[in-house]
Amino acid sequence: MTTRLLLAGTGLIGSRHLQHIRDDPDLTLAGIVDPAPACDTGGAPVFPDIASVDVAAHGIVLATPTATHAPLTRQAAGRGWHVLVEKPIAATLAEADAMIAAAARAGTRLLVGHHRRHHPKVAALRDLVAGGAIGTPVTANLMWLMRKPDDYFDVPWRTGIDGAPIKQNLIHDVDMLRMLLGEVADVVGLGSNAVRRAAARPESGGAVLRFASGATATIAYADTAPTPWGFEAATGESPHIPLSGQDSLRIAGTEGAVAFPSLTVWSGGRTWNDVQTRRQHEAPDGVPLARQLRHFADVIAGRAEPLCTGADGRANLDVVLRIEATAT
Question: Contact, 117 vs 193, CB < 8 A?
Fold first, then answer.
């Protein structure tokens, strides 16, 4: 029996979910929830809202604006549907708590769409760090530096703080760093809007995270700078961003260092006088959004536990809200 999924939202990310659902023989598109679909629905039934849905479904993918995540999740839980919600989980921590509580009451599962966790190279990086390949992690440096096209901001909500790269892009990087280094204890940062000059919308800046373990990470971000450094360009994960293959994350530990996504591990240098050796690890290819949908089906069927839970989504939101607070 295939897993029947509803899709709410058919914009930039929703259209990608739609194609992956169609391409997977173990998934069935039960219907689309969108009052004005932005892409070809392929004959799937379309409903203006959740209350109007009159077809059977096991779960729903929410690829709608952030402000709708909490009410739609509560409605979906009330229908007995499992939920895969795009990041950020919600606009506020209180909304995230309400979503987690609604799923718990209904006995449904809530997954958050930090799909990078499903990238094979991310899994390999996690195994290298957790397996002691670089000793105890000490510090990390991460870059997300892209230039978004001007028409990206034709959508009104993207001109405000919710459309800034902190909440829209860095939240994925925060999730990766939390997965690799643990929970974040302290956050400091600075932001700027010197190029596009949109009021109250940080478009570039930096942040320093200190983790409960004592490790630190620095992050540089901008959506005004065309560079090869950022997860999507580095890995080729997004069909909208050309592959650069350039490392965008480096982690240093007590026994060496690792660069991502090349998975180059440096080791052997006990002091700055020692020559270090380098070896490159391999990881298979895979489309993380497609793998995430298959994982969602496994969770629905009881074959797996969520790789990114509501609690993870809430923790990521908490960090980016603190970065925003220091950047404006």
Answer: no
What number is the average pLDDT over the span 170-193? 97
Is residue 136, in this structure, part of any structural domain at all?
yes
Measured in degrees and rounded to the nearest 5, phi and psi for residue 222 equal -165, 140
For residues 219-230, average pLDDT: 97
Token readout for 166 is 């902190």
163 and 261 assigned to the same domain: yes
Split at pLDDT 50, 70, 90, the class of 172 is: very high
Same domain, 236 and 218: yes
Domain assignment present for residue 277? The answer is: yes
